[in-house]
Amino acid sequence: MPSSRPDRASDEGPSCAVSARRLNKTFIAGGRSIKAVDDLSVDIKPRAITGLVGPDGAGKTTFMRMILGLLAPDGGEITVFGRDVADDSGEVQANAGYMPQRFGLYEDLSVLENMELYGDLKGLSRDMRKARYEGLFKMSGLAPFTLRLAGRLSGGMKQKLGLICTLLSSPRLLVLDEPTVGVDPLSRRELWAIVDHMVEREEMTVILSTAYLDEAERCSDVILMHEGRLIRQAGPKDFTDMVAGQSFMVTAPSLGKRALRQRLSGVKGVIDSTIQADGVRLVVQKGMDPAASVPGVCPQASVSPVPARFEDAFVFLVRQKETPVSADSMTHDAGFDVPAASNAANGVIEVDIPAAGCQPEGTPALDDLHDVIVVKGLERWFGGFCAVKKVSFSVKKGEIFGLLGANGAGKSTTFRMLCGLLPPSGGHLEVAAEDLRNAPARARAKIGYMAQKFSLYVNLTVAQNLEFFAGAYNLKGIQKKERIDWALREFELEPYKDTTSNDLPLGYKQRLALAAALMHGPQILFLDEPTSGVDPIARREFWTRINVLAESGVTVLVTTHFMEEAEYCDRLVIMAQGEVLAMGVPDELKARYLPDVPHVTMEDVFISILEGRGA
Fold this sequence. Notes:
- The two termini are 25 Å apart.
- The protein has three domains: 8-239, P-loop containing nucleotide triphosphate hydrolases (Rossmann fold); 245-307, Alpha-Beta Plaits (2-Layer Sandwich); 396-419 and 444-613, P-loop containing nucleotide triphosphate hydrolases (Rossmann fold, 3-Layer(aba) Sandwich).
- It is 31% helix and 24% strand.
- Helix 18 (586-593) packs across helix 19 (602-613).
- The chain is of the alpha/beta class.
- The strands form five sheets. The protein has a six-stranded mixed sheet, sandwiched between helices. Strands 20-21-22-17-23-24 form a six-stranded mixed sheet, with helices on both faces. A four-stranded antiparallel sheet has the order 2-1-4-5.
- It has 19 helices and 24 strands.
């Protein structure tokens, strides 16, 4: 696609695209002072992709907005292509494209009408638009959908539309704040193809924040921030090399992976432990020999070294810098939140969650002999469109069952039917030994539901949200008080109990949403993309809690776009266009679909299945 800008090769400009020196930014929220960016100095290379990573609240969004002149620093200075942002923000913004986390598409307008609107806002002439539209629609794969309403697009297609709207004016600087959050792996790959194309063909400078650390490995340079400070800036390989020799795989066939991880997490010197393939991946302190330490907690385990990866370095560096979170470190969602450190940081966590101890009367516990979820020939029609087509599967007590698929595959629709929030058009649906057609209320009393966008009341405090959900689950008197106290204690929400949920860091919103879903001690827990947009440290803490729940007998059904999280599932299904394409244990699916690929991942399997289907 030809550039609408003169040849940029002759427009070398300064040696760095963005230069920040001793930046500081402090916010006041709820009478408290929050240091969002703290003495930050970095240089960003031109005509390359620079990744911006860090835990929730690291200051990434605040820094991006200061680069664009949308926020003024309290101290320090920023130049963009040699222009001082403080003195020339209008010129900087005229030559920049910005895609925030909540990009403003107009859902009642078509794809083409959204493009026209952004063309008007950018002042593009009619002559420039035709060629530009044609190239961007072709590159994004949206050419067949130009007349479709934006609100009718899948999540991945919406993100692609947001990106090409941002690219309309061929900006010299492209700033993307987590553009792939909530997007399936296939759509993520397509979004990255667009970004790579713009850097290669139009010589754009791209600054991209991401919660997906495999995406950071695709960047030329990576900036790791934590609590507003620069932790390290280097190429991805430099990050990986610094933890060489500290990564190991531990397997113990006679012990379940969840139980093995729980044991290994308590070993002195273990920095990180995650379930992967048929074992547990460890990152350990320098000089530690897990082969000598692991047999003390698991004599039957086998330990072998594995190559380091970028994520290992991320966790190693962040956990070196972690400090306990206090109420004084409170922040707001609008670009300045704080990290969620907790006693679960290394995967060591004691969780007191009675599986069914708080059930309202008349809801007996499930036994171990029967499937607790039974789906046979499930269908859901919306007018003439079939969103779920003859889906069948079953889930056992204490199982973690994954529902994976591309955006628009029918996962959330299936979830809503399983929770009794949407009536099925056909088929049999049984949850917690109750037929949802005949007894949806009795079934709902046994389940907890954590929605994709966290169903919290943003103007209520943490304590008020817990009070509301306890009442909604018909908890009363001393039982209600005990469960609220439990939630505040167990999820370390006590310092925030008088803070509105809208003012919580994302990791703490996630904790509150999970606490609300568990308020009544459900026997079945539904999690609809529960870690979307959450940083890797908070994801680990979340899954530690879920693993403990499953070990206690709670059945968990989860949808996720993080394919490494599929490894935590005992079994899973992969859906596309409302149908089940594959079902099985993660390792079985790897062996079935990519038997000759070494070190195969679930993302490899997912993409192979969907591409084979033509999704």
